[in-house]
Amino acid sequence: MGKYFISETDIKTSWEFVLTAFWQRYPNPYSTHVLTEDVVFREVTSDNCLLSRRLLTKTNRLPRWAECIFPANLSSSVYIIEDSVIDLDNRRFTTLTWNVNHAKLMRVEERCVFFSDQNRPAWTRLIREAWISSGVFGLSRPIQEFGLARLRSNQMKAMKGLEHALSHLQKTSSSHHGDSTEKPKTCSSASTSQKPQQYV
Q1: What is d(CA 181, CA 170) in angstroms, rounded to the nearest whole number?
Q2: Where in 45-106 does DSSP place strands (E)?
């Protein structure tokens, strides 16, 4: 049995702005661990949904205690598949990511759902869930704990990266359309997160 993580965040920015900022997050100064991003395919379905698959490369530095156990030639990069669905009619954006390599050492699956709040059109709700598991006999628990700690750290970086992209959009929109355009609010000052939960 692995670790489970969940958090809920309210972003005081419209769903359209958040959706646009998501695709413009990289590069940013808070996500230097993300090395590359490539679109594998995109398709528009008959029910007006956009399906995408991307391949991302991220750094994969092991903790010091693990460097003494695992081979020195273990790849320092991890390859991530990201599937996403944009449902324009329901104003819902869902991503599912998982690592392709090092899956026996540690597998992390993450699902994020961004959806428009009908009662507050200027806000976007984000629900993030993650499942962390390890197939290394005798070491699965510390590996999962390490994975959970890194996930929390990367989540904070991801939100800061999204905030950075929103800020860039704000400047771009202001320069092209003047001050009448909606100005995205920062995520950190305008969001509230529930305490993450986990199981052992």
Answers
A1: 9
A2: 49-59, 77-87, 92-99
Are 88 and 73 spatial neighbours (Cβ–Cβ below 8 Å)?
A: no
In terms of Cα–Cα distance, which of 81, 100, 163 is closest to 126? 163
Query: Going edge to edge, which strands form the sheet with 34-44?
Result: 3-11, 120-133, 107-117, 92-99, 77-87, 49-59, 34-44
Distance CA 140, CA 168 (A): 41
* Strand, helix or coil for residue 111: strand
For the segment 57-101, what is each residue's pLDDT rounded down to a tens digit?
Answer: 998 777 677 767 776 666 688 999 999 999 999 999 999 999 999
Within 13 Å, how many C-alpha atoms sit on residue 22's CB side? 21
Q: Cα–Cα distances in Å, from 178 out to 15, 145, 167, 183?
A: 21, 48, 15, 10
Which pLDDT value is given to residue 74? 67
In angstroms, the CA 97 to CA 130 distance is 9
Report the predicted TM-score, pTM, of the whole model to 2 decimal places. 0.84
The total number of residues written for the chain in this structure:
200
CA–CA–CA angle 175, 181, 182 (5° rounding)? 125
3-state secondary structure of 161: helix
User: Parallel, antiparallel, or unpaired: how do β-strands 34-44 and 120-133 relate?
Assistant: unpaired
- Reported as type and span, the H/E element at residue 130 is strand 120-133
Residues 145 and 129: their CA atoms lie apart, in Å, by: 16
Please give the Cα distance from 5 to 197 (Å, whole number).
5
